[in-house]
Design goal:
By secondary structure, this protein is α/β, with parallel strands linked by helices. It has one domain: Ribokinase (UDP-N-acetylmuramoyl-L-alanine:D-glutamate ligase, 3-Layer(aba) Sandwich). The chain has nine helices and 15 strands. A hairpin with a 5-residue loop joins strand 14 and strand 15. Helix 1 packs across helix 8 and helix 8 packs antiparallel against helix 9. The longest helix has 15 residues.
Length: about 300
């Protein structure tokens, strides 16, 4: 196979996101604000205002985001082999993302998430189809790897990625998923040691440190995470903006952009793709944070993780 050269290769999930948008006055749903619980009547038939089937998954989102910002991007992922898998391939190809390293597993269906969009907040039901994630990197040459969430059999793929990083002297951006964070920091210690840029939100950062939410400032969370290997740590905190600590210990802050929120899925992926694209274009960290912030603000103004991603 002919060697392929990329600016960035994204490793992780590509899946189908089904968005169900419900009007705020929908009589079938009740939000208990005190406990932050969304309630429905058991057995009800609920009318939705709009249903959309879109491509998502962290790796797919960042691949599309970096491609739109002018990078030559590839994706390494494993998907099923059904009609929805073809939608994933077609969407990524349309966005000029190289899909030659997407493995389609015979006899398996695509992974799905169902997202309820209600009162400008999303509730996600996510399926992880069991896959081997037996990735190969022999024909890939790249400047950067962006490693993000995978399903249950993720450890072997993560170890292979670290081996590839070390052998090829590639730079690594890392955004661990829920399964990886829940498994504990010790299980991703080798990845953190190889990481150039770590992307997490505030809650994820606290979980990786094993701290109770709200006990530490973001600056302390960032500096403590840096002790485990990452040269640069980026922490996003919703409406409070984002924070970065560089390899010299310098802290940068960037406020969020006020915008009309339609749906929040993909905000973190949009930030990562903006920040990483700027960094690959040799922009300083404060400017990279600005790229990430603008991209994130644009994404939450539309339904889905990719529709609002900015173009160069």
């Amino acid at each position: 196979m002919t060697p392929q050269t990329f600016d960035v290769v994204c490793i992780g999930n590509a899946k189908i996101d089904t968005f169900l948008t419900l009007h705020e006055a929908n009589q079938h749903l009740r939000l208990i604000e005190k406990t932050n619980e969304l309630c429905i009547k058991f057995g009800d038939k609920i009318t939705v205002d709009k249903a959309e089937i879109l491509v998502g998954g962290n790796a797919a989102n960042v691949a599309v985001g970096t491609s739109r910002l002018g990078l030559h991007t590839g994706i390494v992922a494993e998907i099923g082999k059904d009609e929805f898998a073809q939608k994933i391939i077609n969407t990524l190809s349309f966005e000029k993302v190289d899909t030659s390293n997407v493995r389609q597993t015979e006899g398996q269906q695509s992974s799905f998430s169902v997202i309820l969009n209600f009162k400008k907040e999303r509730t996600i039901f996510s399926e992880h189809v069991k896959r081997s994630h037996n990735f190969e990197f022999g024909n890939i040459t790249t400047k950067w790897v962006y490693l993000t969430s995978l399903g249950n059999e993720w450890k072997n793929a993560y170890n292979k990625t670290v081996d590839f990083i070390k052998k090829s002297k590639v730079r690594l951006a890392f955004n661990p998923g829920t399964l990886q964070i829940q498994s504990g920091r010790n299980n991703i210690e080798n990845v953190l040691l190889a990481t150039d840029v770590l992307f997490v939100n505030k809650e994820e950062g606290e979980a990786l440190l094993g701290h109770t939410q709200g006990r530490q400032s973001i600056e302390d969370i960032a500096s403590n995470l840096q002790k485990f290997g990452p040269r640069v740590v980026i922490i996003t905190d919703g409406e409070n903006g984002s924070f970065a600590i560089d390899d010299k210990g310098n802290i940068s802050k960037k406020g969020a952009i006020e915008t009309q929120v339609v749906e929040k899925t993909g905000a973190g992926d949009a930030y990562s793709s903006g920040f990483l694209s700027a960094l690959i274009n040799n922009k300083p960290i404060p400017e990279a944070m600005e790229w990430g912030t603008k991209n994130s603000a644009s994404v939450i103004g539309k339904v889905g993780a990719q529709a609002g991603l900015l173009y160069v």
